[in-house]
Design a protein that fits this description.
Blueprint lengths: L1 E3 L6 E3 L11 H11 L9 H10 L3 H12 L15 E4 L5 E4 L2 H13 L6 H17 L8 E2 L2 E3 L3 H10 L1
Antiparallel strand pairs: 1-2, 3-4, 3-6, 5-6
Length: 164
């Protein structure tokens, strides 16, 4: 379909279902300036700066403290996002646990030589998570991370046998 640009009058092609009324990005910018003139943006740069300076509101501060203490959302083995894990170390030791983050915080110094919640800690967590995804058939390349093997847990094995 051929339409006429509302800014410059040039004819341009576009699909009939398109809601375009301008022929180019430049005309679109001009159109926006015309149609939005006098209208205030919801968040100006000044508003964003003032809110950032204020920091968290009291309600957010309270909510964060409560969330950290909660067994379902805090740094506990019972976190709602925790899943079962079965790892085998390069030395052959087996580890079965429920929450990777919780387990790593307890064992990262001894087993991986890194501090909890450090950059290296995040690398280990990411590598092991990738190995778990690969074990489940995901796109990560290997079911191992630096010699650590990720095996299916009992629950995952049941799901696999039910599919077959």
């Amino acid at each position: 379909m051929i339409k006429k640009c509302v800014v410059c009058g040039t004819e341009f092609k576009c699909p009939p279902s398109a809601k375009k009324v301008t022929c180019s990005k430049e005309c679109s910018r001009i159109r926006k300036k015309e149609t939005h003139e006098g209208k205030k943006n919801l968040w100006s740069e000044e508003s964003k700066r003032r809110i950032a300076e204020r920091g968290k509101t009291e309600n957010l501060k309270l909510g964060t403290k409560a969330a950290k203490k909660s067994l379902k959302s805090g740094r506990f083995e019972t976190n709602v996002n925790a899943i079962d894990w079965h790892l085998i170390s390069p030395e052959g030791a087996e580890y079965k646990f429920h929450s990777l983050n919780f387990w790593l915080r307890e064992n990262c110094r001894d087993l991986f030589g890194c501090e909890p919640d450090s950059r290296e800690f995040n690398n280990v967590r990411s590598g092991l998570s990738g190995a778990k995804r690969a074990m489940k058939g995901g796109t990560y390349g290997s079911t191992t991370y630096k010699g650590w093997k990720c095996l299916p847990c009992e629950e995952e094995e049941k799901k696999c046998t039910q599919k077959k």
